[in-house]
Amino acid sequence: MRKLPPPHRRRWMRALLLALPLLSLPVLYAALGAARSSPAPPPGRLQPGGRRPPPRLAYLISGAGPGDGPRIRRLLRALYHPWNCYLVGVAGEEDRADLEAFVRGQEAPRRYGNVRVAAAGEWAAVTRRGPTELAATLHAAALLLREFDAWSWFINLSASDYPLMPQDDILHIFSYIPRDLNFIEHTSNIGWKEHQRARPIIVDPALQVPNKTEVVTTKEKRSMPSAFKIFVGWDNLPRTLLMYFTNFLASSEGYFHTVICNSNYYQNTTINNDLRFMAWDNPPRAHPVNLTIEHFDAMANSGVPFAHSFSDDNPVLDMIDDRLLGRASDRFAPGGWCLGGSVDGKDPCTFFGRSFVLRPTKRSAKLEELLLKLLEPDNFRPKQCK
């Protein structure tokens, strides 16, 4: 990562940014490589990135509460690829022990060493709308940087998320785009969130007690900085904002967006889309609806690689496994790294090949089509940070 230039003068921060309400955090943001203003590719095609290996994706998979172990096992099977790296975070001792035993019992993760279950001292109870969720995400990114080399994008998923295409498709298409792009949905028009998210002062009990509870809202309201702006120096921006968001409701929905959009190095690298399919009530409520079989066609045709949210063992997950991922029950989603045959119901991933060999499906064209649309001149620059 290139070193940021020293600040020659203080600047006024742009309007604080809040994402649309999500149960999990921003899907993708670049963590490595020099951030610069990336030109969009010519219309109609994505340009190859040379002969370098495909990008490596760093996944954080986190549980929301006790009993999420089976959901995380299923999600990990659907997401696994030996070229990527994975950190699993759960707070319960039983779920943690179960997931550690699961990872040890799988030959592919054991051989490639690319799945890590966060230890008890590395992952504590998290309050979903409190700053402990934000702190856990930052710590997870630090662990992934320490444990694994040269990954290009950080992807944060919860137990209620699920992929809509094989990893080979994602890695193949992402090989054609600049690796300094940040996929993060953001807006400066925060509307009702100013009074319901920004002004309330909350206390996250998980900062003081081991048992997770709901956040506590005080009677007092914070006064917003002049024109909703904060006076900061660039070098200390992430730390300053982290302190500001400590008592901020749903802090994870604004912290990363505000840091990126107020950094000279990163503000021109944003694509205003988090690559996640969601459906909302009309009028929208605080959280998206749980996806069902009724949403399958829309998900399959969306071109996005992930969807949120799913209830436990919803039948639509079986449809996604069968029709979109080609994954059999209790097996990893197959890819170019799997050398075995599938005749007579055999698991093709019993035998391994080279981890960086990709075998994308025809569905990868849908992701390419989506990215080309997002990178069109009318969509790319006008929808970046303002």
TrEMBL record:
Gene symbol here is ga26181
Sorted alphabetically, the Gene Ontology cellular component annotations on this record are:
membrane
Q: Which residues form the signal peptide?
A: 1-30
Concerning InterPro entries, the annotation shows:
GLCAT14A/B/C, Glyco_trans_14
Q: Short name of one Pfam family for this protein?
A: Branch
Protein name, per record:
BGGP Beta-1-3-galactosyl-O-glycosyl-glycoprotein
- What domain of life? Eukaryota
| Keywords for the protein's UniProt record, in alphabetical order | Glycoprotein, Glycosyltransferase, Membrane, Signal, Transferase
Q: Where in the cell is it found?
A: Membrane
Record flagged with keyword Signal: yes
Q: Which GO terms describe its molecular function?
A: glucuronosyltransferase activity
Membrane topology classification: Single-pass type II membrane protein
